[in-house]
Design brief:
Blueprint lengths: L2 E2 L7 E9 L7 E9 L2 E6 L9 E4 L4 E4 L1 E6 L37 H8 L2 E6 L7 E4 L1 E4 L10 E3 L3 E5 L2 H8 L8 H28 L7 H10 L4 E6 L2 H14 L3 E5 L7 H6 L4 E3 L17 H8 L4 E3 L11 H10 L4 H6 L3 H6 L17 E4 L10 E6 L2 E7 L4 E5 L8
Parallel strand pairs: 1-20, 2-5, 2-6, 7-8, 12-13, 13-14, 14-15, 15-16
Antiparallel strand pairs: 2-3, 3-4, 6-17, 8-10, 9-12, 10-11, 17-18, 18-19, 19-20
Helix pairs in contact: 3-4, 3-5
């Protein structure tokens, strides 16, 4: 793949003349976005160009915030690297709450380049669904650092958990608990009971000024109980969704439903409780019983009931750059256009408490901006220029019909 060299972050970058779609506000014809020191400082109709600013002419383009993939395995389930590149599931213990996705991400995974071509500038990387409790997730930018730590948005996002067929199959094959849905729920329930006792003991020790030995597993679950981390619940079938809600009610944690394939069957219940749903992936076969009622229209049904929704490719299940195409087909099946855009921007940012950094074009947020050739929900449109923190990291080259990605290796020579 051809490359371009990343230039230093310009002090002031002005993107002007485009059709600006902040998502969190009304579109602006011939609008201007100003990024100062990597952060958006202005969105509006001004044509004033600050002295010394780098100017990007967006005439004829649509200007949007970078999209967010809220449930992916990019970098942790590497493409084309086989078993050596698969660190998605630590399936040696049903409870791996202490495991952290950040410790297994390869930033040179090809999936990051694909993400840029799809206008995706942020991704929440999660462990897989082989365990009832899979581990801690991490929110990162899709480009820009010599190490994953330099691409970090937040390492305090959520803990991945799974109900249903996956953990049941994994541990049933080992002839150990959990081998049924009952067993999966038992593992989760006991883990939280242990965490409650641990937190009370830790609090008592601190009050007395006594030493206390930290347990990484229980420390993590304590953060879930205290509301610091969300509980990302992999669940497809409606009965598993009901179990997810039951467990959340029992322990009072902040539940986010992931996949929600049959969520439309409980849409009123989910909406009533204001439980967000990360829906998808949609471009898949009905490969297991939990996906029997898989349908793109189910997302529209959830949204129509008032459920806050976002969209996932579950990369590499569906290539990450197809995120916007899933949104386009959801619109075809009845999802309002505005909701489709929100489902890739403001909604995932709010669900996972990243909206102080990303999710829309608004002053104070990161300068993650994408220039599209046209309406991104039109299958013929493409991301022509992608900026992260005000720096161009991807450009479409019409002459070669390929994307140019900022050279990653140059960072190691700094």
């Amino acid at each position: 793949m051809s490359t371009v060299t990343t230039s230093p972050t310009p002090a002031v970058l002005v993107i002007t003349g485009g059709y600006v779609v902040p998502v969190s506000a009304d579109p602006i014809e011939g609008g201007t976005v100003i990024v100062t020191d990597g952060v958006i400082s202005y969105v509006g109709v001004s044509t004033d160009i600050p002295e010394g600013a780098v100017v990007v002419d967006a005439s004829g383009k649509w200007v949007l915030p970078g999209f967010i993939e809220p449930h992916g395995h990019v970098g942790i389930s590497e493409e084309a690297n086989g078993p050596a590149g698969n660190d998605t599931n630590e399936m040696t213990n049903p409870n791996m709450s202490a495991a952290r996705a950040i410790d297994a991400i390869n930033i040179d995974d090809e999936g990051f380049r694909d993400a840029l071509s799809g206008g995706i500038t942020s991704v929440v990387v999660k462990p897989g669904s082989g365990n009832p409790i899979g581990g801690q997730t991490v929110a990162i930018k899709t480009w820009g650092g010599r190490t994953i730590d330099e691409q970090l948005i937040s390492d305090s996002v959520s803990v991945k958990s799974a109900l249903g067929e996956n953990p049941k199959r994994v541990y049933g094959a080992k002839d150990q608990t959990p081998s049924t849905r009952m067993g999966v729920a038992v593992v989760i329930r006991q883990a939280f009971e242990d965490a409650k006792f641990y937190v009370s003991q830790r609090t008592a020790a601190k009050a007395k000024g006594e030493p206390f030995r930290r347990d990484l597993w229980l420390e993590t679950l304590g953060r879930v109980l205290e509301g610091e981390l969300a509980w990302d619940q992999h669940t497809h079938r409606h009965d598993d969704i009901a179990t997810a809600i039951r467990l959340a009610d029992e322990f009072g944690y902040r539940l986010v439903i992931n996949h929600g394939t049959e969520g439309h069957k409980l849409a009123d219940v989910i909406a009533e409780r204001d439980i967000p749903v990360i829906f998808g992936p949609m471009f898949t076969s009905r490969s297991k019983v939990e996906l029997r009622d898989r349908a793109i229209v189910n997302l529209a049904l959830l949204a129509a009931a008032g459920v806050r929704v976002s969209i996932t490719t579950d990369h590499p299940v569906v290539p990450i750059n197809f995120l916007v195409h899933q949104a386009s087909l959801a619109v075809k099946e009845g999802l309002p256009r505005q909701v489709a855009l929100e489902a890739m921007t403001v909604n995932p940012a709010a669900m996972l408490r990243l909206d102080h950094r990303v999710g829309s074009l608004a002053p104070g947020l990161d300068g993650d901006v994408v220039l599209w050739s046209g309406d991104p929900l039109d299958i013929n449109s493409r991301a022509e220029q992608v900026l992260i923190g005000g720096v161009t990291v991807y450009e479409w080259d019409a002459t070669s019909h390929r994307g140019k990605v900022a050279e990653r290796l140059e960072r190691f020579s700094r």
